[in-house]
């Protein structure tokens, strides 16, 4: 085969010069093609190319294709049909883009990437940085038809006929335009075994191609096929599952959630805001029989299954297999008819950890607002746990209903209106064919949580105000009002009154939001709550890793109590995550903590005061025992004496009390 003489080493080339021996074989193949087309040579007796290729040459001639015909003259579907074609194949296109992205470092320099539908109509073309020059004149764009009847023999035109991978090198292609190119193509099949698409890797660099290039094309096509088939299964169940009260969850063959219907999303809303991507075990606990069924590919019916969050309910498992019989995932159905929640709604505030008087006062105030549907404004520094309060309010007032969180600072201004209101199909270029619900409509019956409300675009503020007043929305591109019943909870770490004075926040909207106001206290004002939270995070990390929890040394506890925690609970959690990775043993000491929470031993008076206070408390915790104190701090006794002397601290316990 001509491809067998291509150099086996993969190189990033910048030249298309061909080795002398390669030129000899190329010329031999060209001559062979002429002889076969003229009837001089018998295709069956030729060993230089595959019989499938020589047979395709003959068919190409019968189709009336001239070998000198420019590739860019290939037929295309009408322009007005291209958008519909791409929409029809959107799942295949998305799967291809996702799979190719994993190999972009290998393919985006000297190779071009193509995706075709079964008829050879181009769906995607991704030109390589260097290789693009070779394809400028080919006119390949979405809608162009490359099959055996339009361009003759090529790897992408043979795949639909052979239903298997194939590689065509140089003059093995029918058109002379392709005599400098190599194509490696593989089929993509649907859930019924039907041909769904063709994936191709092309290049004009002969020296950069070998049999491994075809293997790579096959591997990527397999990834695309797997993701595409899983998406089809999800869509099938998505279409049939939203009208039922059953909790329906699809998982991949690794046990990670790929889709959850609305009923499932609502049921797990108090604990998880976004189910796809999470391990199924993290939602329903350790279920050996269920997991075994998913691994073995066998169906399962459980009359009762006890879950840590949802209580006891019937469960069924239906595995997903592709047309080869390979397991690609499964469907888990929980019967909501016997749904028994184990945690009374009013007790959800128990998840807010802390015993300080200031926190208990805040929780008591939040509980008073549960019975009302009026808007609530949560104010507090970043990382204080405003969303935790919002979820507790939602679960106590509207349990089992949707909780839709929106970060107002993360939505582009150009998309803000469509994100909030949704749109009708065809409302604008790029809109989904069937339209889409907005955040407000998704929150109907439940709670809309607008985080960072101070960053809400000024242009959107009057729209939100009107929705709050009228309790209805009109989608973009629509004309019919849609009633929406939801509770609004907003949160901010900014001074909204100051923003009002600056003209950045509407006064009338502020007073609609701030019917009830709750100030979430910063961690530095909560005293020993910091230690309760630290123990909680350590236990949580231990449970996830399956290891014994680490503990804080007395010096680390002292340091935690003296820290200002500008990032609040979020900073505390991140600091412990860091410390658990750094600490070699089971005890977390000050030197294992991030530098930003350690006292800065510089000329700064505040830092020096903080360091001195931490040393005094460490010495007190050790009962005046210098050896114990040094051990708690993870330093030698000599270093401890030097630090005590530096800050003017007596080594005698009584003098430090």
Describe this structure in words.
40% of the residues lie in helices and 16% in strands. The protein is elongated and about 105 Å long. The model is unreliable at 1-18, 338-346, 601-605 and 653-657 (pLDDT under 50). The longest helix is centred in the middle third of the chain and has 31 residues, at 211-241. It contains 26 helices and 21 strands. Helix 20 crosses helix 22 (568-582). By secondary structure, the chain is an alpha/beta fold. The termini are far apart.
In short:
Helix 4 crosses helix 9. 40% of the residues lie in helices and 16% in strands.
Please state how the strands of the largest beta sheet are arranged side by side.
Answer: 2-1-5-4-3
As residue ranges, the low-confidence spans are 1-18, 338-346, 601-605, 653-657
Mean pLDDT: 80
How far do the termini sit from each other? Answer: 89 Å
Largest sheet: 5 strands, antiparallel
Shape: elongated
Proportion of β residues?
15-25%
**How many helices in DSSP terms?**
26
Structural class call reads: alpha/beta
């Amino acid at each position: 085969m001509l491809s067998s003489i291509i150099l086996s080493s993969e190189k990033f080339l910048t030249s298309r010069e061909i080795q002398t021996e390669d030129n000899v074989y190329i010329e031999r193949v060209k001559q062979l093609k002429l002889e076969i087309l003229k009837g001089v040579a018998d295709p069956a007796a030729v060993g230089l190319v595959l019989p499938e290729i020589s047979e395709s040459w003959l068919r190409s001639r019968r189709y009336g294709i001239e070998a000198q015909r420019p590739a860019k003259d290939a037929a295309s579907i009408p322009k007005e049909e291209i958008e519909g074609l791409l929409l029809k194949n959107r799942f295949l296109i998305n799967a291809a883009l996702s799979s190719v992205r994993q190999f972009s470092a290998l393919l985006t320099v000297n190779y071009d990437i193509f995706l075709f539908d079964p008829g050879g109509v181009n769906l995607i073309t991704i030109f390589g940085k260097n290789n693009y020059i070779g394809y400028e004149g080919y006119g390949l764009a979405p809608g162009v038809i490359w099959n055996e009847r339009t361009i003759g023999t090529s790897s992408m035109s043979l795949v639909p006929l052979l239903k298997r991978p194939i590689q065509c090198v140089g003059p093995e292609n029918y058109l002379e335009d392709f005599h400098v190119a190599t194509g490696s193509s593989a089929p993509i099949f649907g859930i019924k075994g039907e041909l769904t698409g063709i994936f191709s890797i092309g290049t004009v660099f002969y020296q950069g191609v070998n049999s491994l290039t075809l293997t790579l094309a096959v591997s990527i096509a397999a990834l695309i096929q797997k993701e595409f088939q899983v998406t089809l299964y999800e869509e099938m169940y998505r279409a049939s599952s939203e009208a039922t009260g059953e909790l329906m969850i699809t998982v991949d063959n690794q046990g990670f959630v790929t889709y959850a219907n609305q009923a499932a999303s609502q049921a797990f809303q108090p604990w998880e805001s976004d189910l796809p991507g999470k391990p199924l075990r993290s939602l329903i606990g350790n279920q050996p029989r269920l997991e075994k069924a998913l691994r073995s590919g066998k169906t399962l019916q459980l009359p009762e299954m006890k879950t840590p969050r949802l209580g006891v309910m019937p469960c069924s498992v239906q595995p997903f297999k592709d047309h080869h019989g390979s397991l690609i995932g499964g469907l888990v159905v929980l019967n909501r008819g016997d749904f028994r929640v184990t945690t009374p709604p009013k007790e959800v505030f128990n998840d807010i950890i802390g015993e300080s008087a200031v926190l208990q006062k805040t929780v008591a105030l939040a509980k008073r607002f549960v019975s009302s549907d009026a808007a609530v404004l949560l104010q507090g520094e970043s990382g204080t746990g405003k969303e935790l309060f919002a979820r507790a309010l939602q679960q106590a007032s509207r349990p089992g209903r949707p909780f839709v969180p929106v970060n107002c600072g993360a939505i582009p201004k150009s998309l803000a209106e469509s994100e909030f209101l949704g749109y009708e199909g065809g409302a604008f270029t790029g809109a989904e064919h069937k339209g889409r619900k907005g955040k407000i409509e998704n929150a109907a019956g439940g709670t809309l949580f607008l985080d960072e409300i101070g960053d809400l675009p000024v242009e959107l503020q009057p729209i939100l105000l009107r929705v709050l007043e009228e309790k209805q929305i009109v989608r973009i591109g629509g004309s019919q009002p849609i009633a929406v019943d939801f509770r609004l909870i907003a949160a901010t770490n900014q001074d909204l009154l100051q923003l009002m004075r600056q003209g950045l926040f509407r006064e009338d909207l502020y007073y609609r939001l701030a019917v009830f106001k709750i100030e979430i206290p910063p961690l530095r004002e909560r005293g020993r709550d910091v230690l309760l939270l630290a123990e909680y995070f350590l236990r949580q990390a231990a449970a996830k890793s399956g290891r014994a929890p680490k503990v804080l040394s007395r010096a680390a506890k002292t340091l935690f109590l003296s820290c200002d925690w500008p990032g609040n609970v979020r900073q505390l959690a991140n600091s412990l995550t860091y410390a658990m990775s750094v600490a070699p043993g089971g005890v977390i000491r000050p030197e294992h903590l991030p530098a930003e929470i350690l006292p800065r031993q510089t000329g700064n008076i505040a830092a020096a005061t903080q360091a001195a206070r931490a040393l005094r408390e460490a010495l007190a915790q050790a009962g005046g025992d210098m050896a114990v104190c040094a051990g708690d701090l993870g330093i030698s006794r000599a270093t401890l004496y030097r630090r005590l002397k530096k800050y003017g601290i007596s080594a005698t316990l009584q003098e430090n009390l």
